[in-house]
């Protein structure tokens, strides 16, 4: 699957006591137009996982090429008790409180649709309730073969 090129998203949610959580994810897809559904596959080991079961909203910020450090930060290994501090990056609050990264190439706010048990991951399906109009990122960050790239020249 490392050969499947894809965008890099930051999944954000508030934990049950209102603390910010964010995880770098590439297992993300659009699913349905009517209703508008997207999915993210989240490891059951991840610190963000359990928050998805209680949150009333979560967001996906599709990272831009100048947000590589943010991708590294949200993919770091977190020991129990570790907290996220996203203050170095420009953000705003989604309608349900989680962070949206305004430097992203695109972002969507979701309300939970369903959670599907899938081996060592859970597939979180969300209904898109808002598409960000205020993001400033230009080129989407691409991940393939365990490396990051920026989109190259169009080929025809
Ligand atoms: C480029 C990239 C893509 C990733 N995609 C996913 C993903 O789709 N789903 C997931 O659960 N974890 C994904 N991860 C792993 C998490 O971001 C994170 O590294 C891992 O869960 C460890 O964090 P934890 O200590 O909070 O569990 C990805 C990591 C990187 C670097």
Question: What are the key terms here?
Answer:
single chain; mainly beta; Pnp Oxidase, Chain A; 1 helix; globular; binds flavin mononucleotide
Can you walk through the features of this model?
The chain is mainly beta and 156 residues long. The protein has a single domain (6-149), classed as Roll (Pnp Oxidase, Chain A), CATH 2.30.110. It contains one helix and twelve strands. The site of flavin mononucleotide has 16 residues, from strand 3 and strand 5.
Topology:
Elements lengths: L5 E2 L1 E6 L5 E6 L2 E5 L4 E7 L14 E5 L5 H7 L16 E3 L5 E3 L4 E13 L2 E11 L10 E3 L2 E3 L7
Antiparallel strand pairs: 1-11, 2-3, 2-6, 4-5, 5-10, 6-9, 7-8, 9-10, 11-12
This protein binds flavin mononucleotide.
GO molecular function: FMN binding; riboflavin reductase (NADPH) activity
Pfam family, one: Flavin_Reduct
Keywords: Oxidoreductase
Strand tally: 12
Largest sheet descriptor: 7 strands, antiparallel
Q: Given this structure, which CATH class is correct?
A: Mainly Beta
CATH 4th-level superfamily = Electron Transport, Fmn-binding Protein, Chain A
Question: Architecture in CATH?
Answer: Roll
Strand order of the largest sheet: 3-2-6-9-10-5-4
Global structural class: mainly beta
Write down the domain tally. Answer: 1
Q: What's the oligomerization state?
A: single chain
Task: Say which molecules are bound, naming each kind only once.
Answer: flavin mononucleotide
Write down the Rg. Answer: 15 Å
Distance between the termini: 25 Å
CATH topology: Pnp Oxidase, Chain A
InterPro entries: Flavin_Rdtase-like_dom (IPR002563), NADH-dep_flavin_reductase (IPR050268), Split_barrel_FMN-bd (IPR012349)
Protein name: Flavin reductase
Organism: Jiangella ureilytica
Keywords: Oxidoreductase
């Amino acid at each position: 699957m490392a050969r499947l090129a894809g965008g890099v998203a930051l999944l954000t949610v508030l934990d049950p006591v209102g603390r910010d959580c964010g995880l770098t994810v590439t297992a993300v897809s659009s699913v349905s137009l009517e209703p508008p559904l997207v999915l993210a596959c989240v490891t059951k080991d991840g610190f963000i996982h359990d928050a998805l079961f209680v949150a009333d909203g979560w967001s996906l910020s599709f990272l831009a090429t100048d947000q590589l450090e943010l991708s590294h930060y949200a993919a770091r290994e977190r020991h129990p008790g570790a907290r996220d501090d996203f203050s170095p990056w420009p953000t705003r609050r989604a309608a349900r409180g989680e962070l949206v990264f305004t430097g992203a190439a695109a972002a969507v706010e979701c309300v939970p649709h369903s959670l599907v048990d899938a081996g060592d991951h859970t597939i979180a399906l969300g209904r898109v309730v808002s598409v960000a109009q205020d993001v400033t990122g230009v080129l989407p960050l691409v991940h393939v073969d365990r490396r990051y790239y920026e989109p190259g020249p169009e080929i025809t």
